[in-house]
Amino acid sequence: MVSNQQPIASSNPTPKLAIWKFTSCDGCQLSLLDCEDELLSLAAQVDIAYFLEASSEVKEGPFDISLVEGSITTPSDEERILEVRRQSRFLISIGACATAGGIQALRNFADVQEFTDVVYAHPEYIATLKESTPISGRVAVDFELQGCPINKHQLLEVISAFLHRRAPQVANHSVCIDCKLRGNVCIWVAHGTPCMGPVTHAGCGAICPSYNRGCYACYGPKENPNTESLCHWWDEKLNVENTLIVENLRNFNPLAPSFKVQSEDRQEDGER
Predict the structure, then answer these.
(1) Could you tell me which of 150, 144, 131 has the C-alpha nearest to residue 260?
(2) pLDDT score of 10
(3) What is the reported pLDDT for 11?
(4) Which pLDDT score, from 0 to 100, does residue 269 have?
(5) Within 13 A of 263's CA, how many CA atoms are on the CB side?
(6) Among residues 214, 202, 215, which one has the least CA distance to residue 175?
(7) Residue 9's pLDDT is what?
(8) Cα–Cα distance between 24 and 180 in angstroms, integer?
């Protein structure tokens, strides 16, 4: 993961941190600002050199760590991410848009020109790519932190890990484990509510199931998810319509490989 074995914190007395926005809603950057007290501690350890969401002061690169939010959706995004990569010792993509395309990647399953013609009065002024891609689809990425938005505690852990050259300790279990830890009754088993929890990465604290709602998979797939089995049980035991299964697989992380493959298989089944 990290090619240089020397910790950033010891090789540079004031490591430079940059936070970049691409096509996104800014929610993951706000998660960093939401750190509040922890943000003050972070600011004491790094030089926050580029963070337009928080400050108009901009310092020149290169940067020790770059956090990248958003997907590559426009021609200018294509050019800019190459420059960000060139200036960054380590590049960490944060959030569903940066790691799995986000909502804007729904265009990849349809005709983006048709969307543009319908939405904009003058589509000839809109510069956009045919497909939206995660950051790893364009440049090498050193770590991906999932979530929509990301968990601020997981983000601080990842930054700390890179500063001290160790593996980030981010739990890769499913939302079901967090549900058990909170003492929740399983809404699928007890109430027959469709839930993406069994295949979804932990990070939200099982918010939706805690309020008797099915998980929407905001944090993307967990490690080795069995999405085929989940979809089978939704179909066979819960009588969920195929279109709803596809929608849930594409909610926030449509290009995550395990979700993308299964959603395409399900869509093909529905068109037969």
Answers:
(1) 131
(2) 60
(3) 61
(4) 81
(5) 21
(6) 202
(7) 59
(8) 32
Task: Count H helices and E strands in the chain, helices first.
Answer: 13, 5
Residue stretches of the chain with pLDDT short of 50: 1-2
d(CA 103, CA 107): 9
How far is 18 from 114, CA to CA, in rounded Å? 36
| Contact indicator for 19, 32 with CB cutoff of 8 Å | yes
Nearest Cα neighbor of 115 from 98, 100, 132 is 132
**pLDDT value of position 102:** 96
Q: Residue 240: its pLDDT value, please?
A: 96
Contact 204, 148 (CB under 8 A): no
Distance CA 68, CA 22 (A): 7
215 burial (CB, 10 Å; 0-12 / 13-18 / 19+) is buried
What is the C-alpha R_g of the chain?
A: 20
End-to-end CA distance of the chain: 43
Task: Decide if 39 contacts 87 (C-beta within 8 A).
Answer: no
- Name every residue whose Cβ is closer than 8 Å to that of residue 263 and which is 6 or more positions away in sequence: 245, 246, 249, 250, 254
Give backbone dihedrals phi and psi of 93, rounded to 5 degrees, phi first: -90, 135
Phi and psi at residue 16, to the nearest 5°: -100, 130
In whole angstroms, what is the distance from residue 108 CA to residue 262 CA?
15
**For strand 16-21 and strand 143-145, is the pairing parallel, antiparallel, or unpaired?**
unpaired
Q: State the DSSP H helix or E strand holding residue 238, giving kind and residue range, or none if neither.
A: none
